[in-house]
Design a protein that fits this description.
Radius of gyration: 18 Å
Order of helices and strands: HHHHHHHHHHHH
Shape: globular
Number of domains: 1
Distance between the termini: 57 Å
Helix content: over 70%
Amino acid sequence: MMDHLSSVLGLGLFGVGLLAFTEKILPVPPSHVLLLFLGMTSARDGWALAVLLLVTMLGSGVGALFWYGLGHRLGTERADALAERFGKYVFLRFETYRRLAEAYRRNHFRASLAAQLIPTVRNYLPVAAGALRLPIFPFASATLLGILLWNVGFLVAGFLMREAGQKPADVGFRIMALVLVVEITFLALLRLAASGRFPVPWRARSSRDRR
């Protein structure tokens, strides 16, 4: 896999943007592994790191807009059916998709931002945003902000690990384990939020709360 990544990176910044875009469409390798690899192999200094951040953010943003456009074209019913039928193949449970889609209805800016900080969900939940016909500007700005936060963390981590002389493969496995723990924790909190036992920032206030 690393050989294929190196071949695409031979195209320069265009290759970096292409990798960021295609990872949004099909997350192989996962974004955290890709970003760590880029930070460890392509960021020679702080300036190169900043350029990588900008290019990967734009590539991922275009990928998110692709899914938004697809959802907009499909509509809510067909988008839900697509997620229910194929979500399991990309490790996106339909229950998770449905709950976060409901969060979109309550506060689409915060939900769009939060979605970009959750593995797998960050790739495909823009379909729900498009299907719900969310305003494009708030969606795009929140999504780009979330992508920025996600990308900068892993790119900088990869850059620092390169300076420490650590091997990309070893680091990748550790990060994958960490991200898995974060994802499980978030999904557990999401279930609590759905049951009303845990508050979330995008939960709509009830009429009692507004009095």
